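[audit] Reproducing an earlier prediction to check determinism. Same input, same settings, fresh worker. If the tokens differ from the archived copy the diff job will pick it up downstream; this log only records the rerun itself.
[audit] input (605 residues):
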Amino acid sequence: MKKIALTLLLAVATVLVSAAQSDNGLSSTQRLIGHTTTDQIDAENACFGQAGTYTIGAVLTADALAPYAGCKVVGVRLAVGADLGRAKCHLQSVDGASTATAIVAQNQRLYKGWNNIFFNGNGYEIKSGENLFYGFDYTETAEMAAAQQGAICVVGENETNSFAFMQNSRIYPVSGGGKLCVALIIDASSLPAHDMAFTFFDTGFKYKKATEKFEVYAMLTATGRESVTSYRVGYRFDSLEPQYATVTKDIASGASDTWQTSIDMPASLAIGRHSFTAWVDAVEGEQLEQTAQRVASVDFAIYENTVARKKVYVENYVDTRAANAALFQEAMDAAATGDNAADMSVVNIFGPGSGLAVSKGAFLHDVYAYTLPSFTINRSYFPGEQHIAYDLNDYLASLPPVFIQGMLSDMIVQDLASASFATVAIDRVSYDATTHRVTATVSGNVLPEATAIYNDLAVTLMLVQDNATYNGQTYTNVLRTYLGDPLGNLVTPVGDTFSQQFSGTLPLGLDPEKMRLVAVIHKAHTEEAPTLTLDNARDYDIINCTDARLTGEGGVTDVTIDAADKQIEAIYTLQGTRVATDAPLAPGLYIIRYTDSTTAKRLIR
């Protein structure tokens, strides 16, 4: 017996696992697609442990459904562990914020075992770019809950989107029970006889050493009407000569195959940006056209040297009107004042139309905030995720802040050790109490990797308030204004260093002693990409970050970072591992970070 826990998880890699049409009551032109499409059941008495009616199902993302665009969904196939009487079966369209809109809601009697539920009408045509939720209403009686014996059928281990729960038109993932035994039934008569499509493609983090192996993990699905016995994948770096890999394996129509390979990177690839492209070259010996579903491509960068990150930049997208706003702030405040406080710089950017919003920061919500509240770390993409931003909403109501703080701590440590190719420091800050004018000098060092990977660099400088009051509530780390362009001001290195002055006005009514400056360095926007969009966002991750108080102790309004008498804040190995500052260091090369946010290398013999 399994008891399903409504423990809701952050998304990881979305993997579609499909299986073939078999002796399951379907016609020769019908197929099952989904996370589990065999007749295997590992447990048929899983339960929630609480009486009630639950809308349960699974989600297929637009990427997973892309090979079937134009086909019609004609029903769902599902298994239950007991006769459940009449229940409503659902097909719903799901937007990027996990909000569902009904397409089909059809009452049907559900019997113990497998049920084929065919929708009334001519079916629903799968559209490009659409996510679908499919499932049914499951009623757990008080007797079931008391006996811990339900009627939910599950198989295998959880995968992202393989078991979901819908409440008030919102979709939430369910963990702890395996994959729900439910699949879509589609009319596959419009598909070609033999075809293969990439349904998942991952090559890990985009920054790679030239000496690394290039690791590829991909899922390919047989999306034609007939089974496949062999297929060939082509792949190339940049525009170099293609290489080929032939796979011989019986793959039923609708089933998936894993293609993994570890490739030596060509010696001709220099430091800088590159691309890797793979494509389904042939199936059953027949050459195929390179359509969008048959091609997968990623950009990556090769580096040799790195610099230490001064701080990890945590950018929160919040709204005073959001249901979980207070819980989110509590969790983030706990992280920002915990063990990793010295390693992170947090900025809350409030949504357009909400209290404390900064109009010039609205573009960040357009690009990253697919749900509210959410956050990014260094605005960087983690392999396998559906979005750059992370969503904590599924945790906030069920886990205490200390658990969320622990998760965030792991993420901060990981990103602090990630590759960086430029430093940034705030050298001098001046504030004129009469004119409210703020002036700051920002400088840094630039590795050759930075120019090769990003071409030009820019610095964005923000004024952030420690404590801001709105409607009787106090909010921390609130973005108040930008000094300069919100998209960043171009820096022009002289040799391998740069120094640039920024200026702006502190909004009236703000206490300068409660303000700090946050500087981030990143790829500069160009005429080709003049603004940040969903299409180019992965190119604009934060390379490095630092912050400084607007005024010094006692309200001193002209603050210079003194290079003398520096205090060590942290020591790292070249691999980014933090070591103790109060114990002798073993021989080796270390990176020292001082309390003034500068860094230096030190060789211990």
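[audit] rerun output stored. Observation attached for the diff report: Confidence is low (pLDDT under 50) at residues 1-22.
[audit] end
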